[in-house]
């Protein structure tokens, strides 16, 4: 399995932010997107995950291969940690959450209401969801926000396990995860030059 | 599929989920009306079908903005959109969950509320029947409105303005069934019209809701 992104141009709010982006990922590889705030890393990730259509270019894989984790964790505060994960496992048709709980050290918290978790614990729960999706490509947007050093190590370990199983990871992050094998792509040089949709119709897109 | 339905109902029943809110609102509307128009049983019996239907409509409206707004705020809507559920299934399940947590309690409680408005006993059955047939349409149309306004801060008022006009056909035929039933008249024709509206919206609107949701998620 291979993810080939060719000539990708993406827009946010109708304004093109990045254009001509090319990269490819093979099974077992990780790619880290870097770039200043507002350059369009999130937009690229959302486009790759299939949440918005690209302006131009192709994403080689179907959206069914992608598991996306954005800035928000999608946690229901009135459900317990176990119920939250079980829901996603059922939606993605995988069923088993034990491995995900263990990977992010959530077993002691399993019966606690998610609303009673700290920000870092919530983040771990949000990342544990990636394990239960069972999908080959992890698309992660700033996955380490509010994680402490120990949890970052747990996360890096989970990503490594995913890669070792033939998975792929595409992420935007500013901190060093200790994933030395991951390639880094600076997206700043791909900044879009002129607005493609400056006409009347374009303002409604 | 079942997991989403179970989750939504579980969320509705747990703290802050708003289950029973619609029912309590319905009760208050029904109790307020006799204070407004006076305790004359004859007058109340005449206006009861209309009041009960308008009350049901408003209490249904009360919980509409929760259908997508909560999932939007905590990011689950993005995640659901990338899940292996078609968007059409997602919006249909959301409407079903809304109906189960709002419409069904209204249907079950309606004979009791009809008693408070001294609706003739002959009207209890037709009223419950018309609500049972009509409230699914309210939930499906409401889900469409909620999908249109998802992501807007304080979108609730706009949602009401968009959805209430679309509720009119359901209200007209639903109240007509209840009125005719209460007067002991034959109510087959408005009932058939009501059923037609409901099944039409169930068949068509999920596609529209899914389309606007996709646009709103970009």
Describe this structure in words.
The complex is a heterodimer of chains A (205) and B (218). Chain A has a five-stranded parallel β-sheet, with helices on both faces. In chain A, strands 2-1-4 form a three-stranded antiparallel β-sheet, with helices on one face. Chain A has one domain (28-51, 61-184): Rossmann fold (3-Layer(aba) Sandwich). Chain A is globular and about 55 Å long. Chain A has helices at 41-48, 81-91, 98-103, 119-133, 149-164, and strands spanning 2-12, 15-26, 30-34, 56-59, 66-69, 137-141, 168-172, 183-186. In chain A, helix 2 runs parallel beside helix 4 (119-133). Chain A has five helices and eight strands, in the order E-E-E-H-E-E-H-H-H-E-H-E-E. Chain A is α/β, with parallel strands linked by helices and 205 residues long. In chain A, helix 5 links the parallel strand 6 and strand 7. Chain B has helices at 2-13, 21-37, 41-62, 66-73, 76-82, 87-116, 124-149, 156-182, 188-217. Chain B is elongated and about 55 Å long. In chain B, 82% of the residues lie in helices and 0% in strands. The relative contact order of chain B is 0.15. The model of chain B has no long low-confidence stretch (mean pLDDT 90). By secondary structure, chain B is mainly α. Chain B has one domain. In chain B, helix 1 (2-13) packs across helix 6 and helix 7 packs antiparallel against helix 8 (156-182). The two termini of chain B are 24 Å apart. The A-B interface holds A 46, 49-53, 63-64, 66-79, 83, 86-88, 90-93, 129 and B 2-4, 7, 10-11, 14-17, 71, 73-85, 217-218.
Mean pLDDT of chain B: 90
What is the chains' assembly state? heterodimer
Helix proportion of residues of chain B, in percent? over 70%
Helix content of chain A: 25-40%
Distance between the termini of chain B: 24 Å
**Greatest interface and its residue counts?**
A-B, 31 and 26 residues
Mean pLDDT of chain A: 85
CATH class of chain A: Alpha Beta
Rg of chain A, please?
A: 18 Å
Biggest beta sheet summary of chain B:
none
Write the H/E string of chain B, N to C.
HHHHHHHHH
- The structural domain count of chain B equals 1
In the CATH classification, which architecture of chain A applies?
3-Layer(aba) Sandwich
Order of helices and strands of chain A: EEEHEEHHHEHEE
Q: Beta-sheet strand percentage of chain B?
A: under 5%
Number of helices of chain A: 5
What is the β-strand count of chain B? 0
